[in-house]
Amino acid sequence: MKKELYNNLLKELSKCEKCTNLKNKNGKDCTLINLYKNNEFCKNIPSIWTDWFNRLNSKIMIIGQDWGPYSDMEKLNKLYIKNPNKNNWKYLIKQEKSNTKKQLEYYIKESSNNKYSLDDIFITNAIMCTRKGENYRGDNINLKKSTDNCKEYLLKQIEIVKPKVILTLGYYPLLSLSRSYNFKIEKNLKDTISKAPEIKINDFIIIPLYHPVAQIKKSEQLEQYKRIWKYLE
Asked: Which residue segments constitute the domains of the chain, with CATH numbers given?
């Protein structure tokens, strides 16, 4: 049932054009690329962020900011299509070398005493489409506008997966949820985490986190991750 619902969501996403002609306040091109236009392409990108159908029953959901460049998705797709089987899918995910993934894995394992890993978590982003170009520069995306444009699709992912705990990485994923569920957050992440380290919404808990590679002490970040596990007992 969840797989069917997620397939339907991907079809909805394929028709969205809200971010395909965006500029920032200075007139810079912030157009995003809809990676769902090609149904087979979007389902064949072996990454922790796109391993959707294998994680639909996860009790934990991580929401990052955005995918980064479309070119990265293309590279992963081509590597998988050369040998499209489950073993290659798992192999390519394991080969993913990003520092974000490395730090996330550390915090999840360390805070849970090695009871959980990233394999147990549904991972997605607040912004569903991908950037142009080859890098993650902040000025080639309109973060506020694209976050707002995508919030209905993020909400539908949550309704499909039904996690017990949602972890938001950085400010914009939390901003998206605050607008969808109508709760207040502070103007910066530090103050929000200080005043609301856990946020109860309906049947789940939101735990706001710094981005794992932010210049924040590991001990401070770990305290937030440790909050997860009491809700899974």
From this structure: 2-13+49-231 (3.40.470.10)
Give which of 13, 21, 23 is closest to 43, Cα–Cα: 13
17: helix, strand or coil: coil
Number of other residues whose CB lies within 10 A of the CB of residue 44: 18
User: Using CA atoms, how far apart are residues 131 and 116, in angstroms rounded to an integer?
Assistant: 31
- Say how far apart CA 178 and CA 201 lie, in whole Å: 10
Do the beta carbons of residue 133 and residue 69 sit within 8 Å? yes
pLDDT of 169-217, one tens digit each? Answer: 999 999 999 999 999 999 999 999 999 999 999 999 999 999 998 889 9
pLDDT in tens, 56-96: 999 999 999 999 899 999 999 999 999 999 999 999 999 99
Q: Using CA atoms, how far apart are residues 21 and 34, in angstroms rounded to an integer?
A: 11
What are the residue ranges of helices labelled H in 15-130? Answer: 39-42, 70-81, 86-95, 99-111
Condensed to tens digits (0 to 9), the pLDDT of residues 97-143 reads: 899 999 999 999 999 999 999 999 999 999 999 999 877 767 789 99
Look at residues 121, 123, 127, 140 and name the one whose alpha carbon lies nearest to residue 176: 127
Half-sphere exposure of 101 (CA within 13 A, CB side): 14
Q: What CA–CA distance (Å, rounded) separates 31 from 70?
A: 12
Nearest to 54 by CA among 138, 134, 142, 121: 121
